[in-house]
Amino acid sequence: MQPCGNSRGEQAKMSRPVQARRLEGIDKNVWVEFVKLAATYSKVNLGQGFPDFPAPDFLQEALKRALSEGTHMLHQYTRAFGHPPLVKVLAQIFEKVLGRELDPMTNVMVTVGAYQALFCCFQAFVDEGDEVVVIEPFFDCYEPMVKMAGGTSVFVPLRPKAPKDGKLMSSADWQLDPAELASKFSERTKAIVLNSPNNPLGKVFSRGELELIAELCVKHDVLCISDEVYEWLVYDGKEHIRIASLPGMWDRTVTIGSAGKTFSATGWKVGWTVGPDRLLQHVRTVHQNSVYHCATIAQEAVAQGFQRELTLYGKPESYFVQLPKTLQQKRDLLIQILVAVGIKPIVPEGTYFLVADISEFKSDVPEVPNSDEPYDCRFTKWMMKNKGLAAIPLSTFYSEAHKNNYPNFIRFCFAKEEATLKAANDILQKWKKEKTSS
Fold first, then answer.
1. What is the pLDDT of residue 273?
2. What CATH number does domain 57-312 carry, 1.10.510.10, 2.60.120.290, 3.40.640.10, 3.90.1150.10?
3. Contact yes or no for 305/271 (Cβ under 8 A)
4. 38: number of Cβ within 10 Å
5. Which residues of the chain have pLDDT under 50?
6. Distance in angstroms (rounded) separating the CA atoms of residues 379 and 141
7. Would you put residue 250 in left (φ > 0), alpha (ψ -120 to 50) or beta?
8. Phi-psi region of 145 (alpha: psi -120 to 50; beta: other; left: phi over 0)
């Protein structure tokens, strides 16, 4: 017999490192942590960006029809780069908004949500040594995806300007410094990531701001990965301008969209890329060698949803017209709720989100000197555990070097039922009374 502790199994145990270097430093994910905390403690979840109201009836009916009346082949593989009915109607929609003819087979590719579209783009275009300009605050997956591709993120901030006459700050008050942005471009710059409307601020980039970005892209021969998942969700009469429509930008831009955000069905995970074939051919290569295929039945239902919207395009009954009106009312309700308790919101021009200054409540969660954890993270965790209200710290959307720049701001999602927002109001009002009486 072999001596205890010297079994053949123990001798065979691996000792060499198994983790690929490209995963170093990106194993932690704020959404995993905060979703778990919200599920455990929160009574009201204004954290993660998904609606708690139903997807529109016409989309649900489309899925039912696809299941019950559609051909049995909808349960099988479809075209790898996108179900033909879906890429065709997407091409028709984007021909309207981009003002150019599109080939559905070469200018559109369907992905498993916008997340996979982003991953495919970074893998397709970014090499070791390449730099990618990322505008802060940014959706948190950009940085690790750039790193996994071997690139380096170069950050440039949106800087807030104080509003005049005591007005609430707007997301439009957060602006790029033209000289600072220009300084981030070099011979190593391969791409810039643009997110408009922006998550988390809700900023809708103006034509002038987009023209500045476009000018630098053309000057330095740089690609633009344009994350436009909230393209239909703009408020107060703002216009969403697609950077691919600007002079010199179609040939260097991949535009990314999401059926989840477009049709309030985030769990369906249907996204897409739109762009020139010279770019999308490389995105297709990554797709075919990773995910390869997206759920046929969901693509069919989304195609039917877009067919309806194509028929109603620009008309009052269009979901693309109705949804932003509904969300603007929800935004305004949450602003009213926050202002009433002394929390100062930054009024968003678009998206599901608003960022707010929670300084009024800081005394309940004292600063911890020399803490490695940003204050907004500790505040948000404390609020979930002690008040049952979930939100997301703004530091989540900043690079490591800049996580402490705005310690008193957190992000709320207002794409919720009115009852959910009123429940949040009850929590905040009770909290405010407790502070006043103590």
1. 98
2. 3.40.640.10
3. no
4. 22
5. none
6. 23
7. alpha
8. alpha
User: Which token pair is 350?
Assistant: 């678009």
**Residue 109: burial class (beta carbons within 10 Å; 0-12, 13-18, 19+):** buried
Token pair listed for 115: 């997340």
The architecture in CATH of the region 26-55+319-437 reads Alpha-Beta Complex (3.90)
- How far apart (Å, rounded) are the C-alpha atoms in residues 343 and 338? 5
Q: What is the largest CA-CA distance in the chain?
A: 86
Is 283 strand, coil or helix?
helix
Check residue 5 and give its pLDDT: 52
Whether residue 271 contacts residue 110, with contact meaning beta carbons closer than 8 Å, is answered with yes
Q: Return the domain boundaries, the chain.
A: 26-55+319-437, 57-312
Residue 100's identity, in one-letter code, is R
| 293 in Cβ contact with 82 (< 8 Å) | no
**Are the folds of 26-55+319-437 and 57-312 the same?**
no
pLDDT at position 369 is 82
Six token digits for residue 359:
């300084």
